Structures are given as C-alpha cells and as structure tokens.
Model the fold of this input.
Amino acid sequence: MKCGQRWRAYKARVKELPEHQRAAVEAIERYLMHFVPTDGACNASIFEDLADLFEQAAVSGTPIREIVGEDPVEFAEAFVQNYSDGGYVPARTRKQLTDDIERAAANETGKQDKTL
Done:
C-alpha cells in the first residue's frame, strides 16, 4: 500500500476510536509530526502502531493515563525513538501535548478541567 493510502487508512481507524481516545491519538499525532522526517519517506508505521495501541486499549478498557503515563511528552518521545533519531520539539509543542492529553483523560472520566 502506498504512503497516502496507508495514511488515509490510519485516519479512518482513528476516527472509529471513542472520542476521548481519538482526542489523545490526535494530540500525540500532532506532536509526533515534529519527529517525522520531511524527506518524503513513508513513516506510516509510526502512526499505524499508535492506532494499534489505542485500538487495543479501547477493547480492553485501558485508561489513557495507563497508556501514556503522567508525562505524555516522555511517552511520545520514547514511542518515536523506536522509529527515528527524533528531532527538535519546541517547549510550546510539548505543553500543547500535555494539555491535550490532560483534557482527553479528563473527558474519559468526566472530570474535565476547564482551566486548560
């Protein structure tokens, strides 16, 4: 399957996740985009594996925090190290990921923090 097809298949899988998990995956996806080389290489396996992880969690009822832990930045950076040498990620992007995961985890439990 070509890169574009794999990307569309991944996005379709993410769309099927429960809303709170979809929000978490999309937040991690945005963050991971800073690590993905822009040389045209196909990096679909990173995102396909991310979808696998959250699909399995949805089936087993695993909470978002059990997947990403208390530090979503650490999770994302460890996750991407399996695929590349990584890249530079600004502090603002790290904070955005942390805030997005906090909202997704809060929505999962119904305890949304309106201050984020």
User: Anything to note?
Assistant: The chain has a mean pLDDT of 84. The two ends are 39 Å apart (CA to CA). Helices lie at 3-15, 19-32, 44-60, 64-68, 72-81, 91-109. Residues 3-107 form one domain.
